Amino acid sequence: MPDITVTGLVKSFGSTRALDNVSFTVADKELFTLLGPSGCGKSTTLMSIAGFQHPDAGRIDCGDTTYFDADTKTDLPAEDRNLGIVFQSYAIWPHMTVFDNVAFPLRVRKTRRAELRTKVEQSLELLEIAKLSGRYPHELSGGQQQRVALARAIVYSPTVLLLDEPFSNLDAKLRERARVWLKDLQHSLGLTTIFVTHDQDEALSMSDRILVMNEGHILQTGTPQEIYHHPSHRFVASFVGQCNLLTGNLSRTSPDSHQLLIAGTPAPLTLAATTSTGADTVTVAIRPEAITLLPEDQPRAENCWPAEIRSVEFLGDHYLYRLRVGTVDLIAATASAPPTGPIALYLPPDALVDVDVT
Ligand SMILES: Nc1ncnc2c1ncn2[C@@H]1O[C@H](COP(=O)(O)OP(=O)(O)OP(=O)(O)O)[C@@H](O)[C@H]1O
After folding, report:
1. Contact, 72 vs 14, CB < 8 A?
2. Pocket test for ligand 1, best of 16, 17, 214 (most atoms within 8 A of CB)
3. Please, are residues 58 and 9 in contact by the beta-carbon 8 Å criterion?
4. Which entry of 35, 128, 167, 255 is 20 to 30 Å from 202 by CA?
5. Could you tell me which residue ranges the ABC transporter domain spans (predicted)?
6. Which ligand 1 atom is the nearest neighbour of the CA of 196?
7. Domain of 53: which CATH number?
8. How many domains does the chain have?
9. Measured from the CB, is residue 209 less than 6 Å from ligand 1?
10. 59 CA to centre of ligand 1 in angstroms
11. Helix/strand/coil (H, E, C) string of 249-260?
12. Last residue of a domain, one of 183, 212, 237
């Protein structure tokens, strides 16, 4: 399977800049996710790769084939791009059986009858819906219908699979199962896959790499671990998982050591590292589970603040605390029950990640 390279994609709808210089490469056999809030440009990117949207500028290559190049006015028709597509709105045909729905792309390609039957049966087996082959869509659950859509997308051995919120009709439990199942399928077929979602859990659990977008811009690209533990932007930190953002004035205590003084807190925080190159105001992010709650009479030497517990929620596998330090509100998460009596928070220096230098 080839790489997909998107270079300098720009697309405007009237005064809305849906894509503003979007560039990325998806590697062979990779499951690559476009993640971001509604309206950030995910679908426009995917539709441009599919050939259903025509960018104003930029280029899209799939291996050695140029799908689109605004400079040379290349725009390969969608049907010649050999992509497997499952869009939210890409409904299966209600008047056709499961078999005929899955056979449809092969009939369009004038595949011979015996080969068509073999390929459809293989796809149905792979998606574990062979027993449903004679049923009509209204006789299927939402999850089964989405499997039919996927079977139809992979039946003609596409070069690349494009999926736009393919689990949107599933309930929470089925969605979780569908993630595991799709990841296994993608892996076993070795399909280069571009997946669009606004669901951070889905993105973190399935992706080899994630691209986070907002307002037509790419903010960060990285593995799920990099995106979660080292967000490079405050938007990424708060969009992907819960996060505390603390803004303060930076001072250098030695060539390698920095402290951040945050208004309303009792003592400056020591940072393990900063990307600041001289800026005074810095925002750091710390995940709730990176904060340790201690009895107040056992403080550590640094990065310890006395705190007041405002509320505690028990969420099954963890507790979520709303805390106040001076005039600053924070959230923390721990696996065990809260300590009794007055508490202090410990914010480990290496868990404080620069997200914005202003
Ligand atoms: N055909 C269109 N005409 C006008 N504006 C459009 C059109 N398609 C998209 N847009 C606008 O372009 C921007 C990006 O839209 P896009 O559908 O790519 O976002 P998205 O991230 O996929 O959102 P969602 O998660 O809600 O599907 C939005 O502001 C949207 O309103």
Report:
1. no
2. 16
3. yes
4. 128
5. 4-240
6. 22
7. 3.40.50.300
8. 2
9. no
10. 20
11. EEEEEECCEEEE
12. 237
Ligand 1: does its nearest atom lie under 6 Å from the Cβ of 63? no
Residue 45 Cα to ligand 1 middle (Å): 10
Distance CA 66, CA 75 (A): 8
Predicted complex ipTM:
0.96
Rounded to the nearest angstrom, the distance between the alpha carbon of 150 and the centre of ligand 1 is 24
Q: How far does the centroid of ligand 1 lie from the alpha carbon of residue 44, in Å?
A: 6
For residues 212 and 344, membership in a common domain is answered with: no
Spacing, Cα 335 to ligand 1 middle (Å): 40
pLDDT digits (tens, 9 = 90+) for 283-339: 999 999 999 998 887 766 789 999 999 999 999 989 999 999 999 999 999 998 877
Residue 358 has pLDDT above 50, yes or no: no
215 CB near ligand 1 (under 6 Å) = no
Q: Which domain holds residue 309?
A: 242-357
Q: What is the predicted pLDDT for the residue at 296? A: 81
Domain stop point among 211, 237, 263: 237
Identify the weakest region by mean pLDDT among 37-41, 145-149, 243-247.
145-149
Quickly count: other Cβ atoms within 10 Å of residue 22's Cβ: 24
Percentage of the chain with pLDDT > 70?
Answer: 95
Give the per-residue pLDDT at 277: 61
Please determine, for residue 279, whether its predicted confidence score (pLDDT) is greater than 70. no
CA–CA dist 343, 299 (Å, integer): 9
Regarding the beta carbon of 18 and ligand 1, being less than 6 Å apart is answered yes
Same domain, 214 and 113: yes
Q: Ligand 1 centre from 90 Cα, in Å?
A: 16
Q: Region 133-161: what's the mean pLDDT?
A: 88
Same domain, 109 and 184: yes
Whether 122 and 51 share a structural domain: yes
Interatomic CA distance for residues 133 and 101, integer angstroms: 9
